[in-house]
Each structure stands twice: as C-alpha cells, then as structure tokens.
Amino acid sequence: MKKLLVALLLLVSTVTANAQLSTAFTDRLQFVLDSVCTRLNIKGVSAALLVPGAGTWTGTHGESYAGHPITSDMLFGINSNTKTYISTLMLKLQELGYVSVDDTIGTWIHGQPNINGQITIKQLLNHTSGLYSFTDTAQFWDSVWNDPTRIWMPEDVLQFVYAPNFAPGASWSYSNTNYLVAGLIIKQIMGQPLSASLSNYIFSPAGLTNTVFFPEEAPTATVPHIWSVWFSGSYQEDVITTYAYSHNAMFSMSYGAGAIMSTAEDNASFWHQLISGQIIDTSSLNEMMQYIYVGNSLGHPVGYGLGIFRYQDMPLFSGHTIYEHGGTNMGFINENCVDSVTGVTISVLTNQDSLDNNMLFVYIMPALHNVSEQMPAVNKVPVQAGNKEIRIFPNPASDQLSVEIPGNTGQLKLSISDMSGRDLVSNALDGNALQIATSGLPEGSYVLTISSDKGTLKTQKVTIVH
Questions:
Q1: 399-453: per-residue pLDDT in tens?
Q2: 404 contacts 384 by C-beta, under 8 angstroms
Q3: How far is CA 185 from CA 105, 122, 197, 395, in A?
C-alpha cells in the first residue's frame, strides 16, 4: 500500500454556501475538505454537498497551476460518470416513445464483425453485452498518442473493438464500448448530435447551465490545468503547460462513455434530481435500479443497474446504501454518490490522475458525509408567529401530525417530503391549526416545510413510526 504523503501546502481554499445552510455546517465541511486533501497531497479539488430541503455547499482546495486557485465555477471532466447521464437520456427517450431499452442494437449498428446485433440496449447500459472495451487495446492507445490533438469520430473507434468477452447476457463486464455504442444509437434515433439530445432532454430541463458534452460543445467556463503521469509514466506534471496538450483526443474518443464536463455543483444537482425522480419517472427510475451483483466492497454487495452502482449498507457512509458512479480519464478523477437514507448528495472532482478513485471514495466522500450526519438534516430556523413559536407535534408521530401557528392570518403552504426531496404531502394552511394524516407514510424520517408567498418560514425533521 502506498505511503500517503503529508504536506503543509499554502494553497488557496474557497467556499460558497447556500444561505439556508448554517455557517457551522459549511465551515466544518471546508475544514474537513482542506484537511483530507492536504493529507493526501491532492493538487486540486472542487466539491459539492447537497442537503435536501436545505441547500448546497460548494468548496474548493488547491490550484489549477501556480498562482491560480481552483474555483467552484471551473469545469472538470466527469469521465465515466457520463454513463449515468447517457443511461438517463436513453430512459427519457423511452418514456417519450422514441425507443425501448429492450430493442436490439442491430437496427442501428451494422457491419461490425465483433458487435452482435442481437445485443439489447439494456445489455449495453448494464454492461452485460459482452462487448470488448476499446480502451483495453494497445493499438488504440498507440493511435491516441501518435496524435494527441486528434478529434475522433466515434465510429472510427469501433475498429478497436475486438472479439467479445462472452455471449450477450451471459455475464457482466464493464466496457467503455457499451456507452460509445449507446451514444451512437441515440445520435441515429434523434437525427442530431448527441450533445443536442443531452442538452434538450437532460441539461436544460434540469437547469445544468455549467455542463457540456465536449468537444461537440465548447466549455462554458474555465477548465483547470490537469496534472498527469500519463506522459512521464512516473511523476505528475502540468501537461497543459509542458506539452500544450489539448483535451480533444481523450474526450472525443470517450464520446458517450465519458465526454461530459461539469462543475461539482451541477453534477450534485443532476444526481439529486435523478434519484428524487425529477428527471425520469418512477417506472424509469425503477428500471435503472434493477441491479446485477458485480462484487463486494468492504464485505458488502455491490450492484450495477443502468449506468449506476449501488453499494449496500456501506460502513464508510454510516451503514447506509448509496447510489454511485465515478470516472477516470487523463488528468481527471471524480466520485459521486447519493445517500439512499438521507438524500445527501456528494460530488468530488479533481484535476489529478495520479490518484486512485478509492482515495476519493474511501477518504474524501465519507469525511464530508460524516459532517452531514453530525448536522441537522435541515437548518431549523426559529420563526415567531404572533410572538409564539410554530409548534409541530407529536414528533415522532404515528397516524396524525398536528401543526399550530398562533396568530396566523394569511394562507400558508405545508409540505412533507422524503429525505431525497420528493414532496409526498401538500396542504394549504388557512387558520391557526392543521392535522395531517400520516398513517399512509412509511416509517422513517421526513422534512416538513411551512412557507408563505415570501418564502420558507420553517423546516423541521419529523419522524413517522407506526
């Protein structure tokens, strides 16, 4: 096991926070991020943590290059995390009637001796197609290094797809070819560049204004310099400065398997909206989460659905099950997760490939997650109404929850959402009191919010027991 370097680095750290998140919460998150990144000697990090019902914290650590600190608006390559977006897009197109994930790919992919036309789209998305991964071939990498500025057409990459690993559906094997092919299928179905479909059906509806599919789309903000060992083979260097390196080759050949650039805040927002059912409908989300067992992590089972990992009962995350996907490419490594219990969402993006993804998964994300567990699920804002505090009782509740707002003379809205942010109950509150039937809610933790036309008056965590 590599010995971790410990260094005291005079690096600029910045933090921004949603006003609803307490300063104690955001300060602690920044302190933890700085501490862990310094201990691991990480060059540059952009991170985001979203708490449903409360807001999003963004923090950065380190530098792009000397004298230029990482800022939260910089775009990082999210690499294989792109697969989650592509799977989401395919499921959205299925909802709209353009395609079925049970369709066989031979309708669109022809003349490829090592690509079986009887493979289904679903088998591409859950990596059971058996397709050989083009990134496993030395010839492919020789071609990339011979011209590191080349913009690849995805069809050209298919020449590096060798004999399949197994018959369709016979086993599981992670393959970048699956998502390159999925991207080509979407391009043909929609009759437009893949970037346009991603923008029209995912990025724009979800408000992801700092997310692009590169190089079909130009970056909307600064991309940090990357620190890589790929050229030297042993030590990391700023390859943008040293070699006048261009991202074109790596991102164009990645295509649907890994060509998205984003900010940590945008990426966290995407994951939160996805898991809380705001991008695709419930049936699509359920289909995405039909998991195949792929191994163990810390003695707990790991499954892969359609572009998404599930880690069950993870000790590193308070014993909670998490939904996750990370990514690796030249100069960029990232990890992203959603806590299935609290809905807390974390995105950690770096500009350094000498790291191991496990360093982010084992050290940074759990450290940030631990802070979220120590803080209230939402910021409890003490609000007075008629000189008396709003009362929510009993808590825990069983079949009925009561709310009293002494002195209320206007119309207020009351909502109850689960910890992923999905609204389950919504009521108008015209008087001083309201009783809400909770017998239909499963046992667990929820967020109750009372708001007026001027904004939120109170949020409180409530527990339902039967």
A1: 888 888 877 767 888 888 876 567 788 888 877 788 888 888 887 778 888 887 7
A2: no
A3: 8, 12, 12, 51
User: Which residue ranges make up each domain of the chain?
Assistant: 76-374, 384-464
Q: What Cα–Cα distance (Å) separates residue 206 from each residue in 24, 269, 446, 466?
A: 29, 8, 24, 36
CB-based contacts of 284, cutoff 8 Å, min separation 6: 91, 92, 94, 95
Closest CA to 225 of 213, 234, 238: 238
The arithmetic mean of pLDDT across residues 376-388, rounded, is: 39
8 Å CB contact between 189 and 99: yes
Residue 403: CA atoms inside 13 Å, Cβ hemisphere, count?
26
65/73 Cα distance (integer angstroms) = 16
- Does residue 85 contact residue 142 with C-beta atoms inside 8 Å? no
DSSP notation for 390-414: -EEESSSBSSEEEEE-TT--S-EEE
| Residue that is written with structure tokens 């370097």 in the block | 5
CATH number of 76-374: 3.40.710.10
8 A C-beta contact, residue 258 and residue 182: no
15, 28 contact by CB (below 8 A): no
In CATH, the architecture of 384-464 is Sandwich (2.60)
pLDDT in tens, 286-299: 999 999 999 999 89
Q: For the sheet containing 391-393, what is the strand order?
A: 391-393, 400-404, 433-437
Q: What is the pTM of this model?
A: 0.80
Residue type, 376: P
**pLDDT above 80: residue 9:** no
Q: For residue 249, which of 353, 148, 371 has the smallest C-alpha distance?
A: 148
Contact 144, 95 (CB under 8 A): no
Q: How far is CA 44 from CA 37, 200, 349, 356, in A?
A: 8, 31, 8, 14
Tell me how far apart the alpha carbons of residues 215 and 261 are, in angstroms, rounded to a whole number: 10
The answer to whether the beta carbons of residues 46 and 60 sit under 8 Å apart is yes
Rg (the chain; Cα; Å): 24
Of 268, 82, 304, 289, residue with least CA distance to 186? 82
Q: Which two tokens stand for residue 331?
A: 């100069």
3-state secondary structure of 270: helix
**pLDDT for the residue 14:** 39
